Amino acid sequence: RRLSPKEKVVIENQVAEWIEEGIIRPSCSDYASPIVIVPKKDGTFRVCIDYRRLNSKIIKDRYPLPLIEDQLDKLQGAKIFTTLDLKNGFFHVAMDEESIKYTSFITPDAQYEFLKTPFGLCNAPPVFQRFINYVFRDIIRKGYLLVYMDDLVII
């Protein structure tokens, strides 16, 4: 669809930030998903990639996500706890080199691909959950930390 001048600026700024942070790079991939702009409640915009077509072809990762209710049950009786939200959590997990080309997306001016796990891929949540469970495995086992993707609760 046609983008407004304001939306184009939002995309340009986001792409520049992602390049600077090493999250994306220019691409010549034969694959490409469309970019979409989603308005947020505060009036700003979120840049997203529409991976629906790609997701329909991906073999699903069945790594279990914790049930929120189970996590909340573990907080019963806790008098003090701290919550942390990992900013852009998926961007902390590098993409497999062979998979990078499939994450390609197009903007009005260029084509890019993700070096880090992008939001919108169907396997991003289980891949991230597996990663975060591994990183914090010892303190999770001891019951000091509850994890639901990029939300952490320290007990």
Q: Secondary structure elements and their pairing?
A:
Blueprint: H1 5-20, E1 24-26, E2 33-39, E3 45-49, H2 52-55, H3 68-73, E4 82-85, E5 105-106, E6 111-114, H4 124-135, H5 137-141, E7 145-148, E8 151-154
Parallel strand pairs: 2-5
Antiparallel strand pairs: 1-6, 2-3, 4-8, 5-6, 7-8
Commentary on this structure:
There is one protein chain. By secondary structure, this protein is an alpha+beta fold. It has a single domain, classed as Roll (HIV Type 1 Reverse Transcriptase, Chain A, domain 1), CATH 3.10.10.10. The chain is 28% helix and 21% strand. It is built from five helices and eight strands. The protein has helices at residues 5-20, 52-55, 68-73, 124-135, 137-141, and strands spanning 24-26, 33-39, 45-49, 82-85, 105-106, 111-114, 145-148, 151-154. The chain has a five-stranded mixed sheet, covered by helices on one side. It has a three-stranded antiparallel sheet with strand order 4-8-7. A hairpin with a 4-residue loop joins strand 5 (105-106) and strand 6. The longest helix has 16 residues, at 5-20. The mean pLDDT is 94. It comes from Schizaphis graminum.
In short:
With 155 residues, the chain is α+β, with helices and mostly antiparallel strands. The chain has helices at 5-20, 52-55, 68-73, 124-135, 137-141, and strands at 24-26, 33-39, 45-49, 82-85, 105-106, 111-114, 145-148, 151-154. It has one domain (5-154): HIV Type 1 Reverse Transcriptase, subunit A, domain 1 (HIV Type 1 Reverse Transcriptase, Chain A, domain 1, Roll), CATH 3.10.10.
